[in-house]
DNA sequence: GAGTCGTGGAA
DNA sequence: TTTCCAAGACT
């Protein structure tokens, strides 16, 4: 039990976190293009797809090109999925591009071309999970949702729970805490979601916290406990060199840069091991990221 | 629930 | 140089 729920008389802000974090956000929020009014729900949604496991700095240029080329969901839906994969460039996890295209198609078919505001409808779209559905509903439509991303989870773990890092997988206790901390007022809740996330991204980071700049350092449970080191199992680092992921990345890079279908020889050149190479290519085809043609040639999916 | 799925910059 | 990790989703 936390101090929040142990006080029956207390409201959701028993710890006094809202005011300082919201005031800090007012002064320190980054001016990101998807936060501007002209971005709209589609801009917010595109940014959320791109920001899944990819840093802001790398998303920015691709986001601008994407919105300029496909300003509405129907514009993207009218394109071949392979064009989405190509425009995705080197953001990584290219299945996100395929899913964003699929979401645009679904929005065009099921929602009249407008990004749905209903959480359940958002969740039903490809590539949108619990986090992204809440993020779009909150950031684009000002709704009251617990937006639990890695930044918020880390902030809550430290400020409230008093540990250095949150669990590897999101727990029911974290969801409960996030809901309990959500301001009652809808508009305030939406700003709180963005503010708590920004605090984790700029001040209370995984690399190292900057408590001198933190608006809630005085009440932070982890800091007050003397910043005990994380004790649980170490988060397993992902080795990348030599994996199928690396081979898939190289294969897809060749196809992205090619205007015409690519022959087997060009693909064979990217990796020495023919077994792993074939496995990676089969995986890309199975995922719908690559389309096999007659004569052993390949291209990005035409639709 | 653990594994899989890219990429590149900062420490 | 190596390691870490950045607004997750899906199976």
Folded structure, characterized:
This protein is mostly helical and 303 residues long. It has 15 helices and two strands. The chain folds into three domains: 33-139, Endonuclease III, domain 1 (Orthogonal Bundle), CATH 1.10.340; 146-224, Endonuclease Iii, domain 2 (Orthogonal Bundle), CATH 1.10.1670; 244-294, no CATH class. The protein has helices at residues 18-28, 40-51, 56-69, 73-77, 81-88, 95-110, 119-123, 130-139, 150-161, 172-181, 186-202, 221-224, 244-257, 264-268, 274-286, and strands at residues 291-293, 297-299. It has a two-stranded antiparallel sheet. The model is unreliable at 1-9 (pLDDT under 50). The structure holds a DNA duplex (11 and 11 nucleotides). It catalyses: Hydrolyzes free adenine bases from 7,8-dihydro-8-oxoguanine:adenine mismatched double-stranded DNA, leaving an apurinic site. Belongs to the Nth/MutY family.
Q: What is the strand content?
A: under 5%
Got a strand count? 2
Question: How many helix segments?
Answer: 15
Indicate how many domains the architecture comprises. 3
Task: Give the CA-CA distance, first to last residue.
Answer: 52 Å
């Amino acid at each position: 039990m936390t101090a929040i729920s142990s006080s029956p008389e207390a409201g959701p802000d028993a710890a006094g976190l809202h005011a300082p974090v919201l005031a800090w956000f007012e002064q320190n929020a980054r001016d990101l293009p998807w936060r501007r009014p002209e971005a709209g729900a589609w801009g917010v949604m595109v940014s959320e797809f791109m920001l899944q496991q990819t840093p802001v700095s790398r998303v920015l240029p691709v986001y601008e090109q994407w919105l300029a080329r496909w300003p509405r969901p129907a514009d993207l839906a009218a394109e071949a999925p392979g064009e989405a994969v190509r425009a995705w460039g080197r953001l990584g996890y290219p299945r996100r591009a395929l899913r964003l295209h699929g979401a645009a198609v679904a929005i065009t078919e099921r929602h009249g071309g407008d990004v749905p505001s209903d959480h359940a409808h958002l969740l039903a779209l490809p590539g949108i999970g619990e986090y992204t559905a809440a993020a779009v509903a909150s950031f684009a439509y000002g709704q009251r949702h617990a937006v639990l991303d890695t930044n918020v989870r880390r902030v809550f773990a430290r400020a409230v729970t008093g540990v250095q890092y949150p669990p590897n997988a999101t727990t029911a206790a974290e969801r409960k805490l996030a809901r309990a901390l959500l301001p009652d007022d809808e508009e305030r809740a939406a700003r709180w979601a963005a503010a708590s996330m920004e605090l984790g991204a700029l001040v209370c980071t995984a690399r190292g916290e900057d408590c001198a700049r933190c608006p809630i350092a005085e009440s932070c449970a982890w800091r007050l406990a003397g910043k005990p080191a994380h004790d649980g199992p170490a988060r397993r680092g992902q080795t990348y060199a030599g994996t199928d992921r690396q081979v898939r990345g190289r294969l897809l890079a060749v196809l992205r840069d090619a205007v015409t279908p690519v022959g087997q020889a060009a693909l064979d050149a990217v990796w020495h091991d023919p077994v792993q190479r074939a496995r990676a290519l089969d995986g890309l085809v199975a995922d719908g990221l690559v389309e096999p043609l007659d004569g052993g040639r390949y291209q990005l999916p035409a639709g």
